[in-house]
């Protein structure tokens, strides 16, 4: 296997060749051929020069931010059971994210407290909140394509229109009743989705 740091010594000469070289050296002296360093070392040196010039362009504060971000990422990887530093996202993770963006419209659920719903009620009671999530790429109709074309040609300018279907509830669950923190009784209708579709 080739080793980048190997140096080559001249071949041992025989007495006759040394005599011939001494006689020829007296008549004409040939300059020694310049020694070439191995290519791997040249590439490594130029790469180090590039990185050092790049780091010199940063301020001390920016370098500290970079190092702290790398340390934080490394500690997160080690805490999650990883054994290597994930500096660059893998192609597989990009594909997973692309698949996640194109999941079809579906009904999901989440257990939350009444206070977390953001309707202004204070209560520790929990409800099962069902919601619609996903994309509607397969539900694009001629209407959506034509509307998109009219918007791109600026035939429709001021109106706020949506040129693609959206994943929304088609039907709602039963009304939800609860007691708030002051023992007052409330009923909220159309809170959770029962059925989802592309509208």
UniProtKB/TrEMBL annotation:
Q: Which gene encodes it?
A: Nrtn
Q: Which organism is it from?
A: Aegotheles bennettii
Q: Which residues form the TGF-beta family profile domain?
A: 94-199
The entry sums up its family as follows:
Belongs to the TGF-beta family. GDNF subfamily.
Q: Region entry Disordered: which residue ranges?
A: 1-41
Question: Which stretches does UniProt call biased (Low complexity)?
Answer: 9-35
Cellular location(s): Secreted
Q: Which GO terms describe its biological process?
A: glial cell-derived neurotrophic factor receptor signaling pathway; nervous system development
Q: What does this protein do?
A: Growth factor that supports the survival of sympathetic neurons in culture. May regulate the development and maintenance of the CNS. Involved in the development of the neural crest. Might control the size of non-neuronal cell population such as haemopoietic cells. Acts by binding to its coreceptor, GFRA2, leading to autophosphorylation and activation of the RET receptor. Heparan sulfate-binding is required for signaling.
Any one of the GO CC terms: extracellular region
Species classification = Eukaryota, Metazoa, Chordata, Craniata, Vertebrata
Does the entry feature the keyword Disulfide bond, yes or no?
Answer: yes
GO MF annotation terms: glial cell-derived neurotrophic factor receptor binding; growth factor activity; receptor tyrosine kinase binding
| Source organism superkingdom | Eukaryota
Main localization, broad class? secreted
Concerning Pfam families, the annotation shows: TGF_beta
Entry's CDD domains? TGF_beta_Neurturin
Q: Which keywords has UniProt assigned to this entry? A: Disulfide bond, Growth factor, Secreted, Signal
Kindly state the subunit structure of this protein: Homodimer; disulfide-linked. Interacts with GFRA2 coreceptor and RET: forms a 2:2:2 ternary complex composed of NRTN ligand, GFRA2 and RET receptor. Also forms a 4:4:4 tetrameric complex composed of 4 copies of NRTN ligand, GFRA2 and RET receptor, which prevents endocytosis of RET.
Recorded protein name is Neurturin
